[in-house]
Amino acid sequence: MAGIYIHIPYCKSKCIYCDFYSTPQVATMEQYVHSLLCEARLRKTELSSPITTLYIGGGTPSVLPLELVAEIVNGLHEVFDLSLIEEFTIEVNPDDVSPHYITALRQLGINRVSMGVQSFNDNELHAINRRHTSQQAIEAVRAIQDSGIGNMSIDLIYGLPEQSLDSWQRNVEQAIGLDVRHISAYCLSYEPGTRLWVMREQGKVQEASDELCVAMHTTLVSKLEQAGFEHYEISNFAKPGYRSQHNSNYWNFTPYLGLGAAAHSFDGTNRRFNPSNIKEYIKALSENRTVFTMEELEWWERHDEEVMVRLRTSDGLDTTVIAKHYGSNASDTLLRKARPFINQGLLNQKGTILTLTPQGVMMSDHIIRTLMWD
Q1: What pLDDT, on a 0 to 100 scale, did the predictor assign at position 362?
Q2: Long-range CB contacts (within 8 A, 24+) of 107-113
């Protein structure tokens, strides 16, 4: 199996918390799409396994005119064998969604939509500079469902400025009531370089307390599990049969090809990184040359990634796999470091499998860092 990720680095406006590479300068869209397809042709031999997932993310892919989305999809079909695609996802913003738009996406073979809602509270949306309203989000969900695309995910954020536990609970209940199949929920992160970071430093916003974030996460997990969702990764919940195949492949170390400015690729051993610069990206492809830099991971870097990624999932970390990939010394060291967390009830050990407990999830960063190779 293998996957393809397409990065669309355009947004109509920047959310105050976002540190992903994006720009509101949309004049280069057409050139950019041509560059994407040129890169696909130049790098088509990097994937040797059948392609089963395709993901168009961003940025905000839904700001692209439909004709450019169609150009991307049709161009990829000319370069790759996409006959075995099982999951084809595109990210959208609620205010870009219309019945006509979604119908056109479905006709292009897109069978999964991921929508950035973040909140169903208009005051919270305004505080983080989201473009849509709560009502627009609800109407967009229904439009997508009415189009026949039943495989839909929405993103939510907790710990927003001035957000209360009651407000968060209503957000979760609203999401459940819309009968979506997948929910990704993240605690608000204050990333250096974002407007949110600056606002906190200037005292214009106050970060939610750890206690409030723990209570919000507990509410999230409880309500979604009661509604029949599987908590299959720290930030991801799905109805049975609706886990994100593309993202699960990241966590399983399945090879993938990333196309576009700021996109990453992984072939099992090496990572490739495209520059976070549209002009540089377009210029290189106009000269018919790739622009990525390559990094060959050391064994201990692969070990640390495996620990980090697998512990985030409900399937957990198999210590026999660590021994197979990195030697018995690595697995013995891992178990020695894990023992205090097991004794504290932060890690479960079932046979050779380690998983985070509900209490451990809230300390996952600390636990994972501790289990990494010295």
Answers
A1: 87
A2: 108/69, 108/70, 108/73, 109/73, 109/82, 109/85, 110/73, 110/149, 111/87, 111/149, 111/151, 112/87, 112/88, 112/149, 112/151, 112/152, 112/153, 112/244, 113/89, 113/144, 113/149, 113/151, 113/152, 113/153
